Amino acid sequence: MSIASIRGRARGVGSEFLLACDLRFASRELAVLGQPEVGLGLFPGGGGTERLPALVGRARALEIILGCEDFDADTAERYGYVNRAVADDQLDAFVDRLARRIASFDTAALAQGKARVNHSSPLPAGADLVASQDDFFAAFTWEGTQRRLARLFELGLQQPGDVEQRLGDVVGELALGPATAT
Prior knowledge:
Layout lengths: L2 E4 L2 E3 L1 H7 L3 E5 L4 E3 L13 H9 L1 H10 L3 E2 H7 L4 E3 L1 H16 L3 H14 L5 H14 L3 H13 L6 H4 L1 H7 L9
Parallel strand pairs: 1-3, 2-4, 3-6
Antiparallel strand pairs: 4-5
Helix pairs in contact: 1-2, 2-3
């Protein structure tokens, strides 16, 4: 059983790591989630396209993946991206209490309960995840992707500051035109 406690930004592969967890709880005041890859000229290659639709539904997954916007904890909760948004000053206690409660139960019952849920709502096949990741890495060779990434790095991508704070907005403001595969 994996439980994520989200306090801060989780975009791209960080978001995809969270999607692979069994349970996700987010700080109402501090959590920001998103899949900005399409705005970078890429697409989610770490399981986002496989796991997100199962959690939030197809239409919302398309909104998250193709819209590239940042999502606050309350919206993420409403969409099913996270289990629950919790006040930041209560997040650690809430997650700790739940984890201890779950850990106190019989392991055979926990394992069987999780196995039955997984049977009813299957996880993505390993081969699908590998194929998606291979396609993701190939996207780095696309001319449009290289242009968009170069421009974002010029603006401050992966540096403390405005671009990282507002990445969902920044990728939507790039005036480069559509990226195309070559």
